[in-house]
Specification:
Elements lengths: L13 H13 L6 H14 L5 E4 L2 H11 L7 E5 L5 H8 L3 E5 L10 H7 L4 E4 L11 H11 L2 E5 L7 E2 L2 E2 L6 E5 L12 E5 L2 H11 L20 H11 L2 H18 L12 E2 L5 E4 L4 H12 L27 H9 E4 L7 H16 L3
Parallel strand pairs: 2-3, 2-4, 4-5, 5-8
Antiparallel strand pairs: 1-9, 6-7, 6-10, 8-9, 11-12
Helix pairs in contact: 1-8, 2-8, 3-4, 3-7, 10-12
Amino acid sequence: MTEFIPAAKPLIGDDERAAVDRVLLSGMVAQGPEVAAFEREFSEHFVEGLPVVAVNSGTSGLHLGLLAAGVGPGDEVIVPSFTFAATANAVALTGATPVFADIEPETFTLDPRAVEAAVTERTRGVLPVHLYGHPARMTELTALATARGLSIYEDAAQAHGAALDGRPVGTFGEVTMFSLYPTKNMTSGEGGMVIAHDDATARRVRLLRNQGMERQYENEVIGFNARMTDIHAAIGRVQLRKVDGWTATRQANAAFLDANLRGVIVPPVADGATHVYHQYTIRVEDDRDGFVRALKEEYSIGSGVYYPIPNHRLPSLEKFAPGLELPETEKAAREAVSLPIHPSLSADDLERIVAAVNALAGAGR
């Protein structure tokens, strides 16, 4: 029987288990020295020393980051609809209104022209998503934000190590979130990192994650319990030592697929962009769902459809966008499919993926 190739595969090994055991033996398992060390190391590794605050999930990171940046009722924040719902959810949870704009077809990220058309007198900021590990059009979006007096907030949940013209994602926005969910390019088991551009914003995030206090029982604001544990931080610290090698493997796998796939639209990379391939997302123009089904049933290869329902069509979010038409978003939702790209793939796995995709594409499926 042919072994199944999964769409994603978390990499947790002996080093991570040893780190967890070390924390358990220490007796300090809540937010403590491991979290502080992880914040410092993550900052140095990915965001050029900017302040970093660890939290319990990527969604919490977006929510608390936006609150710390002052986003709230009466504000509008422009977001893509072609992404996971957490992006717009975080805006709505602040009391602000998510305003959906269309994407450009090449990178699946916000189209700056669509963003400009969506700006109103209530717009406070723009929240691009560096989707699938490819940076958004930050040069154009930053210029637009500067010209219109808007803030930039970044959703880098899938983009650890991505960059544009040598500048890392996470260094463009007033606040940024990285996710550490198990299937991301690196994980802490669960968690998120908030990047702030100044110490005052970082302090507000720290207050919000810990019931509104930095010192016990001295609550300064109304806050949440969104702390990361030392157990999770210890896992993340180990993964930080490995993520660059994994990213290089993802990029090599992507290069192999780029060179050998036929009959589908492979993911282009914008000039100056460093793509870290959280997902390797192709377009299948005819019967994408049949293609996905056949890939699994006939070739024992997993894949992912991210995202089949645009956010502005979801029952939870459609109230923010009555009658809105986003043609490129709708097209991507019909055509996009992500193939396995994770570092666990063998050379034989990659050959199987190419053979299967080319056979299905050649058969018109």
